[in-house]
Amino acid sequence: MAIKERLSGNEAVANAMRQANLDVVAAFPITPSTEIPQYFSQYVANGKVKTVFVPVESEHSAMSACIGAEIAGARSSTATSSCGLALMYEMLGVGASLRAPVVMACITRALTGPINIHNDHSDAMAASDCGWIQLHAETAQEAYDQYLMSFLLAEDPRVQLPVMACQDGFITSHAVENIELLEDEVVSQFVGTYEPQDWLLDPTTSTAFGPYDSPAYLMEHKRQQSQAMRNALPVFKEVAAKFEQISGRKYDVIETYCTEDAERLIVLIGSSAGTAKTVVDELRSRGEKVGLVKITMFRPFPREEIAQALSGAQAVAVLDKSDPMSGIGGPVYADVCVALSQSNRRPLLVNYIYGLGGRDVRPEHIEQVFEDLKKDLRDGGWKDDYRYLAVRGE
Amino acid sequence: MSYRFKEEMSKKERFAGGHRLCAGCGAPVVVRAVLRALDEGDKAAIVSATGCLQASTFPYPYVTWEDSWLHSAFENAGATISGVEAASKALAARGKIPEGARCIAFGGDGGTYDIGFQSLSGALERGHDFMYVCYDNEAYMNTGIQRSSSTSRFADTTTSPAGSVIPGKPQNKKNLTEIVIAHRIPYVAQTTMLGNFADLHQKAHRGIYTPGPAFLNVMAPCPRGWRYDTPKLMEICKLAVETCVWPLFEVIDGEEWILNYEPKKKLPVEEFLRPQGRFRHMFKPGNEWMIQAYQEEVDRRWERLLSRCR
């Protein structure tokens, strides 16, 4: 029987960590993910888990310890945000190339410069090309569910890659929502124990990890890593099907909302999907053909699914909660453009940077985007596809 | 602990030949000696920081290490071995492996005194059961002999060149061993390659088999950086000890200081400096003050050590 609870996203993930048969957790505090190691260390202190908790002295060491533990043969996890993720940057790439299936709860927050503790996606997006699978949650329930699914995905022999299970800082991590937890025993059976093929502490043999890789070999190793990332997409679908059997909740790499006959679509990631769905409902009630595509799996990028979901639309606005300062728009927009590059029919495409540094995203902002798309279609084109939403002084 | 050189040397080699370290390099000699201190039948889980030792012992697909080995980055050997040790506890608790995995980390002075210092300090403070071995060759040798905080004063390196205005490295060598001792960990020792290797062997054995963190600081000369004739490796180490540039001592629980060797006649530092090209400029006429300053620093440290050990 599912357990009905009222939990914040952080507490939901801490519960998932408690249930996931973790061998090692190494973490360092940073707002807004701090609560996760706080809750978890209580479980350790009160004997609720057998996990070895390593309270490291930095996020770089948190990731290094997780990679060391994972390669040693132990299921390991951590949580971080913003600068913490940035400090891990070097180790993210190393962990992925070592094929260490660490699972990390990433509680997204603006990456410092200037410092700001509130939500946007600049931390996760800056780390989205490090070889980690990236899942994004809209709600605390999704954060809990996707964190648990991450272990099956990461440890699958066809994948063997680390996973970042992301949720929006404060908006999801701190807001208390109704949630259904699975029973401990059900989760334990779902995730099983970590039994890798090659591990450092294997008493029966010796194994070496982390070579100097010369030009004669590195490219082949990268090609294998690339294949593993590509495999992650269909494997996620399998994992989601298994998860549906124990939870009744359905997941896919993207979620479509009122897209089938939609003329105008918004594509976005994370908690703002809830706001956007409300606006879609409101506009639909007025007869406007609008819809939403929410990206759950950002890495690997669900190219075919996105192309399919957008194929019938006349105009699409891609909303990015980060600006990589590339001069041509946000990272989600860039990837959506690639996804559509082979399509025969391409909708009018525009990009909005929104919600930076915790800027509130209100229904009227989403409504404005749909209005803008209507105007763009009416005008038969657009001059500027790189826009900021709800910003002063433009 | 008794030490039988012949018996030790007849043990199965844990560090295979054919690695790509230079002739006359101290690092592989140190590693072989440390690994010989493992009891037969025991298996080590080894972590290496990025550096000469790491790059030269696992150029894919050739592995020098007979025990299991992991390298992930430069500045994180302390944190990585922490994770390995935590894993060994967790896996032993669930009955997958026997208890008492022998966790050993190797780092050069760059990866230990400098970029890996925080990671090492964290691991020591948390009290993981492991031994950290610093093979100290007093510069970033892997990238081409740049100065580190371990580099001796006046040493000519590629980022502290002996120039017409600045005569090599301006600062004295950081005393990392004392900083590690201040963590009050169960076992800290300073050693190098000497004679029949009894000192290094016994310290490595004690470090490996002492529960909790242990730290070995091992002087490991580099023929490229120090510019000595490669066969002189052992001679340089002996001179470092006989001049008291590199004293042999150990400290238990941060409290009990034990001096392992006191030269009958302390040699002047020139004996250590002269065979090394990195100190050549110190012997030019007019530079006598450099040798005097070097001697004063060695004397100051030696007297301080003696007072602690008495």
Give a topology summary.
The complex is a heterodimer of chains A (394) and B (310).
Chain A: E1 3-8, H1 9-19, E2 24-27, H2 35-45, E3 52-55, H3 59-72, E4 76-80, H4 82-87, H5 89-97, E5 103-108, H6 122-126, E6 133-136, H7 140-155, E7 163-168, E8 176-181, H8 184-191, E9 208-209, H9 218-247, E10 254-257, E11 264-268, H10 272-285, E12 290-295, E13 297-299, H11 303-310, E14 315-320, H12 331-340, E15 348-353, H13 363-378, E16 386-388
Parallel strand pairs in A: 2-3, 2-4, 4-5, 5-7, 6-7, 11-12, 11-14, 14-15, 15-16
Antiparallel strand pairs in A: 1-8, 6-13, 10-12
Helix pairs in contact in A: 1-2, 1-7, 3-5, 7-9, 10-13, 11-12
Chain B: H1 5-9, H2 27-36, E1 44-48, H3 52-57, E2 68-71, H4 77-93, E3 102-108, H5 109-114, H6 117-126, E4 131-136, H7 176-181, E5 187-192, H8 198-209, E6 214-219, H9 223-226, H10 233-242, E7 249-252, E8 256-259, H11 270-273, H12 288-309
Structure in words:
The complex is a heterodimer of chains A (394) and B (310). With 394 residues, chain A is of the alpha/beta class. Chain A contains 13 helices and 16 strands. Chain A has a seven-stranded mixed β-sheet with strand order 3-2-4-5-7-6-13, sandwiched between helices. In chain A, strands 10-12-11-14-15-16 form a six-stranded mixed β-sheet, sandwiched between helices. Chain A has a two-stranded antiparallel sheet with strand order 1-8. The longest helix of chain A has 30 residues, at 218-247. The mean pLDDT of chain A is 97. Chain B has twelve helices and eight strands. Chain B has an eight-stranded mixed β-sheet, sandwiched between helices. In chain B, helix 2 crosses helix 8 (198-209) and helix 4 (77-93) packs parallel to helix 6 (117-126). Chain B is globular and about 70 Å long. Classes of the chains: A alpha/beta (394), B alpha/beta (310). Chains A and B meet through strand 3, helix 3, helix 5 and strand 9 of A and strand 2, helix 4 and helix 6 of B. Strand 9 of chain A pairs parallel with strand 2 of chain B.
